[in-house]
TrEMBL record, chain A:
One Pfam family it belongs to: BPD_transp_1
Protein name (Swiss-Prot/TrEMBL): Amino acid ABC transporter
The species this protein was found in: Ancylobacter defluvii
Taxonomic lineage of the native organism: Bacteria, Pseudomonadati, Pseudomonadota, Alphaproteobacteria, Hyphomicrobiales
One GO CC annotation: ATP-binding cassette (ABC) transporter complex
SUPFAM superfamilies: MetI-like (SSF161098)
UniProtKB/TrEMBL annotation, chain B:
Protein name in UniProt: Phosphate ABC transporter ATP-binding protein
Lineage, uppermost ranks: Bacteria, Pseudomonadati, Pseudomonadota, Alphaproteobacteria, Hyphomicrobiales
CDD domains registered for this protein in UniProt: ABC_HisP_GlnQ (cd03262)
GO molecular function terms attached to this record: ABC-type amino acid transporter activity; ATP binding; ATP hydrolysis activity
Organism per entry: Ancylobacter defluvii
Domain of life assignment: Bacteria
Cellular compartments annotated: Cell membrane
Record SMART domains: AAA (SM00382)
Keywords linked to the UniProt accession: Amino-acid transport, ATP-binding, Cell membrane, Membrane, Nucleotide-binding, Transport
Domain ABC transporter: 8-244
Alphabetical list of SUPFAM superfamilies matching this protein: P-loop containing nucleoside triphosphate hydrolases (SSF52540)
Family according to the record: Belongs to the ABC transporter superfamily.
GO CC, one annotated term: plasma membrane
Length: 270, 248
C-alpha cells in the first residue's frame, strides 16, 4: 500500500479496524466469563434458527422469517408490477388512483400497516359457503407485502422513466406500437436497472420481517422471547447480539451484491 | 412548383408547445427523389418540421400529405404504421437500442413490425451494413461503436424499412469533425441514388453540395427557399444574409 491512501484503501482500513475491535471485545469478554453464556446461546441456536430444539422440522425461528420474506416479496412483485403499470397508464382515471395508493402505502409505517392487516383481515373467510381460516402467517405476508409492493412499483417506474426518451422516439419512428415498445425496447433495458433496487428492497423487507412478531407467529423474535423467559438476565444480551448477527449475515451479502450490480449497470445509457 | 406531383406536401402547418408557437404556418413541398436541406438558427422549428412529417408530433393546424397519406388526419399509432413504413428517420443522438447488436438493431423493425421474412431481412441487413462500410461490426453493441459508426448503423436501420423518404435530424451535430465525413459520405450516396431526403443540418458546405433546394427557417417560418447557389451566394432576405454571415 502506498501513502497517501486512496478512498477505498482508507475504507478497508476502517472496516478492518472495526472488525478487529469487535473480535477483540468479544474475545476479552469471553475470557472474563462470557464463554459460559456463549455456550448457552450455542445450545439454543437450533431453536432460534428453526423453531425446534433439535433443528428439524422447520416450524419457526429464523427459517420462518426467511419464508415470510420470500412470500411477501413474491406477493409484492405481483401487486407492485400491476401498480407500476397502473401508474404509467395513459388514462388519468387509472393513473391517479394508483399514484394515491402507492403514496399512501409508501408513506405509512410498516408496523402500523401490519397491525391494520391483523385487525382488518378476518380470522375466517367465507368463500362459496366454505369457511377458510386465515392463519396469522398469511396476515403477516399480506401486511408486509403492501409497503413492499409500493416500493417495488416505484423501482419499476423509476427504471422505465430513466430510459432516454430518444428510445421511444426511435421505436415510434420505426412503426412500433406502444405495447411492443414496452416489451421489446424499454423493459429489456429497464429490467437491468430494476434488479439492484429489488435486491435492496428484499434486504429491507427481510429486516422488517422481525416486526411480524406482533402477529404472534413463531418467528425468530417470538421464539427468542419465549426462550429468554427461561434464561437468566445476564445472558439476554448475548442472545440479542446473536439474533442481530443472523439478520446481518443474511442481508449484508444481498446488499453488497446489489451495490456491485448497480456499479456494473452504470453508464449503459443512451 | 407543380404541386400535383409532390411526394410530400405541407400546407400552413402550425404547432405550439404550451404558449410557445414553434411553427407559424409552414408550407413546403418535396418532389419524389428530391433532396431538400433545411437550415436556420437553433429553435427556429427545423426539427419540429421533421417530427410533424412522420407524425411523431401532432400538429395544431394546416395539412400534411405524404403520398396519399394525410398525416394530419391520423389519430392513433396504429393508423400511423403505413406512414412510418414509408418515412424513416435518423436522429441526432442515434437512438440505437443499446441492448441489441448492430445487426439486430437493423433487423428488429422489419421483422417485428413489417413482418418480413427473417432470412430475407438478414440478407438485407448485411447488404446495408456493407453499404455503410460496417460489415465487420455486425455483432458489436452500440456501446462498442464510435459516434460515427453508430450513426451509420442508424442510417442502415432506417434504410432497412425500405422507406420512400428519409428524414435526417442534425445527424452530424453530436459527432466530432473527423467522423462527420464518413456519415456525410453515406448520406450523399443515398441522395445520388435518388432517395427522397429531407435534411436538417448545420453543415453548410454539405447542404450546398447535396441539396437541390435549401430552405432557411427562422422563428417558425420558412423565410426563403431556392437552389443552394441562390441561397448561399445571393440571399434575398436580410435575415438569411445575417444568418449566413454568422455561420459561413
Amino acid at each position: 500500500m502506498q501513502w497517501p491512501l486512496t478512498y477505498h484503501e482508507k475504507k478497508r482500513v476502517v472496516q478492518l479496524a472495526i472488525v478487529l475491535a469487535l473480535a477483540g471485545w468479544i474475545a476479552a469478554d469471553a475470557l472474563l466469563g462470557g464463554a459460559a453464556y456463549w455456550q448457552r446461546v450455542w445450545l439454543r441456536l437450533p431453536l432460534l434458527l428453526t423453531g425446534s430444539g433439535s433443528g428439524w422440522p422447520l416450524t419457526g425461528g429464523f427459517a420462518l422469517n426467511i419464508f415470510l420474506g420470500l412470500g411477501s416479496m413474491a406477493l409484492a412483485a405481483i401487486m407492485g408490477t400491476l401498480l407500476a403499470f397502473g401508474m404509467m397508464a395513459k388514462s388519468r382515471l387509472v393513473r391517479l388512483p394508483c399514484f394515491f395508493v402507492m403514496n399512501f402505502l409508501r408513506n405509512s409505517p410498516w408496523l402500523v400497516l401490519l397491525f391494520a392487516m391483523l385487525y382488518i383481515i378476518p380470522f375466517n373467510v367465507r368463500l362459496f359457503g366454505v369457511s377458510i381460516a386465515v392463519p396469522a402467517f398469511v396476515k403477516a405476508v399480506i401486511g408486509l407485502s403492501l409497503p413492499t409492493a409500493a416500493n417495488f412499483a416505484e423501482i419499476i417506474r423509476g427504471a422505465v422513466q430513466s430510459i432516454h426518451s430518444g428510445q421511444w422516439e426511435a421505436a415510434r419512428a420505426l412503426g412500433y406500437m406502444p405495447m411492443a415498445i414496452y416489451s421489446r425496447i424499454i423493459l429489456p433495458q429497464a429490467l437491468r436497472r430494476m434488479i439492484p433496487g429489488w435486491m435492496n428492497l428484499y434486504a429491507l423487507l427481510m429486516i422488517a420481517t422481525s416486526l411480524a412478531t406482533v402477529t404472534g407467529i413463531q418467528d425468530v423474535l417470538t421464539t427468542l422471547n419465549t426462550l429468554l423467559s427461561m434464561e437468566n438476565e445476564r445472558v439476554i444480551v448475548y442472545f440479542y447480539i446473536t439474533t442481530l448477527f443472523l439478520f446481518f449475515a443474511y442481508c449484508y451479502p444481498i446488499a453488497l451484491l446489489a451495490r456491485r450490480m448497480e456499479q456494473s449497470v452504470k453508464g449503459d445509457t443512451l | 412548383m407543380n404541386r400535383t406531383n409532390a411526394l410530400i406536401e405541407l400546407d400552413a402547418v402550425t404547432k405550439s408547445f404550451a404558449s410557445f408557437e414553434v411553427l407559424k404556418g409552414i408550407s413546403l413541398s418535396v418532389k419524389d427523389g428530391e433532396a431538400v436541406c433545411i437550415i436556420g438558427p437553433s429553435g427556429s422549428g427545423k426539427s419540429t418540421i421533421l417530427r410533424c412529417i412522420n407524425g411523431l408530433i401532432p400538429i395544431d393546424g394546416g395539412r400534411i400529405r405524404v403520398g396519399e397519406i394525410e398525416v394530419h388526419k391520423l389519430r392513433s399509432e396504429k393508423e400511423m404504421r403505413p406512414l412510418r413504413h414509408r418515412v424513416a428517420m435518423v436522429f441526432q443522438q442515434y437512438n440505437l437500442f443499446p441492448h441489441r447488436t448492430a445487426l439486430q438493431n437493423i433487423m428488429m423493425a422489419p421483422v417485428q413490425v413489417l413482418g418480413h421474412d427473417r432470412r430475407e431481412v438478414e440478407e438485407r441487413a448485411h447488404r446495408l451494413l456493407a453499404k455503410v462500410r460496417l460489415s465487420n461490426k455486425a455483432d458489436a453493441y452500440p456501446g462498442q461503436l464510435s459516434g460515427g459508426q453508430q450513426q451509420r448503423v442508424a442510417i442502415a436501420r432506417a434504410l432497412a424499412m425500405e422507406p420512400q423518404v428519409i428524414l435526417f435530424d442534425e445527424v452530424t451535430a453530436a459527432l466530432d469533425p473527423e467522423t462527420v465525413k464518413e456519415v456525410l459520405t453515406a448520406i450523399r450516396e443515398l441522395v445520388d441514388e435518388g432517395l427522397t431526403c429531407i435534411l436538417v443540418t448545420h453543415e453548410m458546405k454539405f447542404a450546398r453540395e447535396v441539396a437541390e433546394r435549401v430552405c432557411f427557417t427562422d422563428h417558425g417560418r420558412i423565410v426563403e427557399s431556392g437552389p443552394p447557389a441562390q441561397i448561399f451566394d445571393a440571399p434575398q432576405d436580410p435575415r438569411t444574409r445575417e444568418f449566413l454571415g454568422q455561420v459561413l
